[in-house]
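We close this part of the discussion by returning to an individual protein. In the encoding step, the backbone of a single protein was reduced to a row of integers, each denoting a local shape. The sequence in question and its structure tokens are set out directly beneath this paragraph.
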Amino acid sequence: MSWTPTREDFDLYMVPNYSPQRVIPVRGEGSRLWDQEGHEYIDFAGGIAVNGLGHAHPALLAALKAQADKVWHLSNVYTNEPALKLARMLVENTFAEKVFFCSSGGEANEAALKMVRRYAFEKFGEHKNKIISFRQSFHGRTLFTVSVGGQPKYSEGFGPIPGGIHHATFNDLDSVDALIGDDTCAVIVEPVQGEGGVMPANQAFLEGLRERCDRHDALLVFDEVQSGMGRSGSLYAYMDYGVTPDVLTSAKALGGGFPIGAVLTTNDIAAVFQPGTHGSTYGGNPLACAVALAAVETISSPEVLEGVASRHALFRQRLEELSEKHGGLFSEVRGMGLLIGAELSEDFRDRGRDILAASIKEGLMLLVAGPNVLRFAPSLIISEEEVNEGMARLDRALATLKA
């Protein structure tokens, strides 16, 4: 097809549930992208924490090309080598004993939530079905996961929503104590709330959740869709806290840009998913698993994980310098590893999307987490030169916006 689409064609042909920027990227390499006109951009967005190794990483390209010459899809009537190799890799490098594969983070959380309810049903009876989540959390876009997520704007208008779901306050154990009981089947939490403003959990909070779940025979679920796969500086953020969940969900950077999700758990819990209990048409897809295996092997290397800490320090330093230069731009810079949130001060309140638009004009791609938090989720291997150049572009965007 010789036709070249434009941004206007999105409005003409696509359902308007997104409002993308005006530029259309057509090529990427490392932490840089180029649009249809050849303009270059530094990528601080990382596909919303998906492109953990940047664009067109040679290890991922090699894995995809090699598998493309073999088999693309089999369905789960058969297993396949890439899925088994990836499952073994995840088991050997985490707390998990069993893995379930699907196509996205939302699917992974849907499966995890069904799994914990099924486990409680079989072990204790149907009365034990309460799920505790947290306000401002985000767990996906299925009806179940938006209901468990703690942001009503995502579930409004889609009711009636599933019952038995209760929301406590993040980093507040007293609010958990007011809800948890012997009818609780699970507590689900993000070690770092991503969409909720890039809010890391306190150490005592996660330790307290573990203790309370143990006391009430409830399962602890960590949603590491965004915080996992090296984003925190460890393979998964639970390792940084030293708090082990019963179930962990993973996606985004797991496939380095190729769609895949996973649920990690123990033998005992996994046993409730017998044939016919749950499934995923594309779960364990050979192409996805081959790419994901290459991503996990690369990201779990000491060179990549150790580099995250130094890049975090550089991001924080440069953001604090920008804040001071622009009259207290940020009220707080927070996060873990290369998932960083910079909260706008009162003088810049609700200007997040304006900053995004101004940054695009200067050749920089970044994110927001709500209207008041700039979110940075770049490649884990972004160079110091690219960090500094990106910050220079953000500086120019802020100056233009203020003018």
The mean pLDDT is 96.
